Amino acid sequence: MEHGFVDSLVARSPVLEVLNIVGYIKCGLRLRLVSQSLRCIQICGSVLENIAVVKAPCLERLILSSPYTPNRGLCARLRIVDAPKLHTFGYLEPGQVLEVHGTVIMPGIKPSENAMLTGVKILSLEVRFGVRNDVKMVPTFLKCFPNAERLHIVSKKCDEPTGEPLTVKFWEESGPIENVVSRINLMTFREFKGDRGEVGFLEFVFKSARALEMVAIFMANPSFTPFSMDEALVKAQYSARNLASKSCKKCIIWSSRPEGGDPWSLRVGADFSFEDPFTVREEDS
């Protein structure tokens, strides 16, 4: 498939509402999307290089899931120019370059109002908690979505950790994050193994999130990711010892599926009867 083919196809499809791209791995996928009708874009199992949403006034869901990295060691670039109705966004990774309304989001910066996606209510992040640079990017990403009410975290496997994990002290020193403090009412955390970086993040959320009503922690499958289940359970419980929200309910779920299974499917993602595609498994729908 040549570069520009999908762009041209979308431009010539005035009633197209759902765009799914699967398995584009020959080279990095480049898209420059302009559409008056698209409501949902889903890309999975593909090499992402440059995804630009230039003008999509009806776009509500942007879901990108890629186990691959671009050739030549480059970072995937995601550019959001005009998508005023964007409501659901994932799986955003700290290793990707995010550009919002012409501003490249860099670690440690305080995003201006122009660099925020205020309409996003459901956000999903994939994070390697053993890679310090990845973790340092997460507070900045979160600040770009000040009105997010549901947060879904996937802890990606880290084959080569870089330095000591960042603990709750790092998160506290990053300053208040508006959506964590006052907006997020539901959080899921998948692939939990009890690593220090994971525990530090959970501690921070539990101590800060005043509106939190429900947290579901999905343990990694020890058959595929070796770790001590007993220690991980203790650490998950320990992370919730100080709760900002006294009404928060917590549950810990054991996984029997490879890599915790996939909490999202193309069919569910394109079905707008499901409010949150990141909480619905295919077999439950």
Report the radius of gyration as a whole number of Å: 18 Å
The termini sit apart by 32 Å
Helix-strand pattern: HEEEEEEEEEEHEHHEHEHEH
| CATH level-3 fold name of the largest domain | Leucine-rich repeat, LRR (right-handed beta-alpha superhelix)
Strand-residue proportion: 25-35%
Using the alpha-carbon principal axes, give the shape.
globular
Based on secondary structure, the structural category is alpha/beta
Low-confidence stretches: none
Mean pLDDT: 90
Count of discrete structural domains: 2
* Second-tier CATH architecture of the largest domain: Alpha-Beta Horseshoe
Q: According to CATH, what is the class of the largest domain?
A: Alpha Beta
Q: Would you report the number of β strands?
A: 14
Major beta-sheet overview? 9 strands, parallel
Detail the topology: elements first, then pairings.
Blueprint: H1 5-11, E1 18-22, E2 29-34, E3 40-44, E4 48-55, E5 61-65, E6 77-80, E7 88-92, E8 97-100, E9 103-104, E10 122-127, H2 132-143, E11 150-155, H3 168-173, H4 178-182, E12 186-192, H5 196-208, E13 214-219, H6 229-239, E14 249-253, H7 266-269
Parallel strand pairs: 1-3, 2-4, 3-5, 4-6, 5-7, 6-8, 7-10, 10-11, 11-12, 12-13, 13-14
Antiparallel strand pairs: 8-9
What's a quick, concise take on this entry?
This protein is of the alpha/beta class and 285 residues long.
